[in-house]
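Folded chain entry —
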Amino acid sequence: MGRSRKPSEFAIEALIKASGWSAVVFVLLIFLFLLREGLPTFAEVKLGSLFGLRWYPIEGHFGLVPLVWGSIIVTLGAALIAVPLGVAAALFIAEVAPRWLRELLKPLVEVLAGLPSVVLGFLGVIALAPLVRTSLGVPTGLTTLTGSILLALMALPTIVSVAEDALDAVPKSFRVGSLALGATRWQTIWRTTLPAARSGVLTATMLGIGRAIGETMAVMMVTGNAPQLLLAPRALWSPSRSMTATIAAEMGEVAKGSTHYHVLFTVGLVLFLISFGVNIAASSMLFKSRGGGGRMLS
């Protein structure tokens, strides 16, 4: 006969289940709230205006394209900087650094992930923006490139931490087997360890991108906040405005229930769907990574 369970065990189990489901419920409630406040936009604003290239709410121009493009170009720039640096740093910590240095760097990287974004934004305004302005000879340092560099610095701890965990999870027998076959240490890292941790590294990349695209305060402080559609590379040297910065800058000034108010919630809805897609992709890669690991070890 099985041992009867105590009431406290049922209570703890119910509390854990409720905590898990509450996260799902909160996400659904946020989505429903965005739908309720954002859907009236499609009755009040023509689709042609929403897909327009001009964001100037005072004159009734609600083109979302410059805002979406601003978020995309800033995030892509951050990814191009952060991903190679993050993966290289993770490889150094996991495969090259001595144990005492690894024990020092790993907690330090995780602490950097907790720095408030407004502090990094302030550093970007007083240090990074003047450096970009003088180095590139542009009229202002508040550009898309400045935002990308700052976002890359913010995404780096996430990429390094998750990628280092994935590299550390690769079985030691893989490295020993590669070295036993005559491969050098660098060949073992590049052709054995890194491919074996590929899914985890991709997950780290997606999480870093998700961190970058959802950032608000730092982006608003250093990108110049000019909603315009410019193609790369000119877009990198010019000011831009992201979706998050638009919501943060304008939501406090609009009249509740106005068209501008509903359009800002539509911007939030678009941002929610993009972030949700990035997180789903990262979770899918993580799931495949765990399944692949199980098959490798079996």
Observations:
- Confidence is low (pLDDT under 50) at residues 292-298.
- The radius of gyration is 23 Å.
- The beta strands are 55-56, 61-62.
